[in-house]
Design a protein that fits this description.
Blueprint: E1 4-6, H1 12-19, H2 22-28, H3 37-49, E2 56-61, E3 67-77, E4 82-89, H4 99-114, E5 119-125, H5 129-137, E6 141-152, E7 155-165, H6 166-170
Parallel strand pairs: 4-5
Antiparallel strand pairs: 1-2, 2-3, 3-4, 5-7, 6-7
Helix pairs in contact: 1-3
């Protein structure tokens, strides 16, 4: 079974819970305000009706098909052939079991093979050691640092810009 699939309406309850989780929101640079059912539905409508060709959003699912997270390519630029990656495992009890890495690799494969992207980039909090290591393990490199770029729990956080390239993965 694929670990990523299109987001469906049945996923909205879990997604709203995760979108309202402060820790997840801080690590994913998510929407900073509380999300209600109507807002979640409007977000879902926007990604299912108007997203292509700028955004591809997937549910990350467990082996039994239950949503455990979200993965997306955003800001897809088909001229310059790049896109911004975002991913999280929202279900805390499924973290650390390889689901994030499998989903990340599947999303990268989708970006390079299906969308013909040349570069996939992301932003990650400099303090997020687990995420940084995952990206390094999946052949991302650090391209730069945005100093004091993200306000988090009363202080400024540096963001790392990390990227992977099609030619790196083919060698």
């Amino acid at each position: 079974m694929d670990i990523i699939r299109p987001v469906e309406a049945r996923d909205l309850t879990a997604l709203r819970r995760w979108h309202n989780n402060k820790t997840l929101r801080n690590n994913t640079h998510g929407f900073r305000f509380p999300v209600n059912s109507e807002m979640e539905k409007a977000w879902f409508d926007s990604i299912t009706k108007n997203a292509a060709p700028k955004k591809a959003v997937f549910a990350v699912q467990s082996d039994d098909g239950v949503i455990i997270g979200l993965a997306q390519l955003d800001n897809i630029d088909l001229v310059h052939r790049n896109g911004k990656l975002g991913i999280f495992i929202g279900d805390q009890k499924t973290r650390g079991k390889g689901h994030g890495k499998r989903a990340l690799l599947e999303l990268i494969r989708f970006g390079f093979d299906d969308l013909n992207l040349s570069k996939i980039y992301l932003y990650v909090n400099a303090s997020n050691k687990h995420a940084k290591q995952l990206y390094l393990d999946c052949e991302f490199i650090t391209e730069g640092t945005l100093k004091k770029h993200y306000f988090l729990d009363g202080s400024w956080e540096d963001l790392l810009i990390m990227s992977t390239f099609r030619n790196i993965r083919q060698s």
